[in-house]
Amino acid sequence: MADLTALRFRNRLYYVLLAAGGLVALAGLYAVHMMESHGHIITGMNNQIVWGMPHVFAIFLIVAASGVLNVASIGSVFGKSIYKARAPLASLLSIAMLAGGLTVLMLDLGRPDRLMVAATNYNPTSVFAWNVLLYSGMFSLVAIYLWTMMERRMNQWSKPAGLAVFAWRFILTTGTGLIFAFLTARQAYGSALLPPMFIVLSFAWGLAVFHVVQKVIYAWNEKTLDPAILQRTKNLLGIFVIGSMYLVATYHLTNLYFAHQSGFEHFILVDGGVYPTLFWWGYVVLGNLLPLLLIYLPGLGKTGCVVAASLLVVAGAFALLYVFIIGGQAYPLNIFPGFTVSSSFGDGQIASYHPSIYEFLLGLGGLAIAFIITTVSVRVLNFMPQDKAYIPD
């Protein structure tokens, strides 16, 4: 009787969570309706800051969607059994986050009704057009990869499909980094370091999301993760976090080396108001140093610590993206080095930005879409990792 009561409670909780996710997604659609009806004037965006809070959510979801596939790639391409057992769940998360991120991106850029015009008038010289192919290709390849893993008759094709996904996800994240690397209209961007930086960031962010979802699934099914497997994956998360810090530090040190970038770096790291605070306290301390302590400090590193570290890595990701995307646009382009530039259009001035509630609702709507896809899929199909007795390799 006790088991039946617990089963009924879980069933009700499932539908409550699903309804909550649906309400958040509807709130996101309401925000889109308001922005379509009244224009972007009701958002915090302006002529200087054209990518606002929704882009922070969208870029996080897209980058993490690529990074979470690292779990699947280690299993399929490199033959590590504990990761291979998690490849279906990692692929599902990738599709779910990509769907959420692209929904936010499409609805935030304005005129989603003209999407077909953009698709049928392809501009091969635009990095944004390249990314349309990369995103649609990613969806298709991951779906095929998932099919080869879930359908027993197709298992023989799992490794080639995994190899294709492994290559494509590197290209996709490179494409995301290239959007900023090719953008020379802001001091923050236009650096060849950005594509590799986004690739390494995706490793940490994707694995952090995977840790959180895996913990929830194990708790929901009243199972416990093998401590040896947890030890292996949390060490990998720690390495990815260190790698992320290294690339971000290299990006800023490279900028500091060039005199024309010193003003921007001083703004972002020292006296830019909310941006230095978010960078040092949000990204460096909460998003990197504290997770590393939770992972590696003797006596810590247990399941709760790893989940807390993963959540902090995700929070740090949002802090870094806010600084990079919003702060990068807020600082004016140095059009004529050595001269002061001013105009009635705001040239030479630091732009202000205050995100509106509609932007937050749209971004949260993207997270809700990813949540709903994951929740329903896990309920309908078996994405629970099937671990065998762990043998260190």
From TrEMBL:
<feature type="transmembrane region" description="Helical">
    <location>
        <begin position="160"/>
        <end position="183"/>
    </location>
</feature>
<keyword id="KW-0472">Membrane</keyword>
<dbReference type="GO" id="GO:0005886">
    <property type="term" value="C:plasma membrane"/>
</dbReference>
<feature type="transmembrane region" description="Helical">
    <location>
        <begin position="89"/>
        <end position="107"/>
    </location>
</feature>
<keyword id="KW-1003">Cell membrane</keyword>
<keyword id="KW-0812">Transmembrane</keyword>
<dbReference type="InterPro" id="IPR052049">
    <property type="entry name" value="Electron_transfer_protein"/>
</dbReference>
<feature type="transmembrane region" description="Helical">
    <location>
        <begin position="304"/>
        <end position="325"/>
    </location>
</feature>
<feature type="transmembrane region" description="Helical">
    <location>
        <begin position="278"/>
        <end position="297"/>
    </location>
</feature>
<feature type="transmembrane region" description="Helical">
    <location>
        <begin position="12"/>
        <end position="32"/>
    </location>
</feature>
<keyword id="KW-1133">Transmembrane helix</keyword>
<feature type="transmembrane region" description="Helical">
    <location>
        <begin position="52"/>
        <end position="77"/>
    </location>
</feature>
<comment type="similarity">
    <text>Belongs to the NrfD family.</text>
</comment>
<protein>
    <recommendedName>
        <fullName>Molybdopterin oxidoreductase</fullName>
    </recommendedName>
</protein>
<feature type="transmembrane region" description="Helical">
    <location>
        <begin position="127"/>
        <end position="148"/>
    </location>
</feature>
<dbReference type="InterPro" id="IPR005614">
    <property type="entry name" value="NrfD-like"/>
</dbReference>
<feature type="transmembrane region" description="Helical">
    <location>
        <begin position="189"/>
        <end position="214"/>
    </location>
</feature>
<dbReference type="Pfam" id="PF03916">
    <property type="entry name" value="NrfD"/>
</dbReference>
<feature type="transmembrane region" description="Helical">
    <location>
        <begin position="235"/>
        <end position="258"/>
    </location>
</feature>
<feature type="transmembrane region" description="Helical">
    <location>
        <begin position="360"/>
        <end position="381"/>
    </location>
</feature>
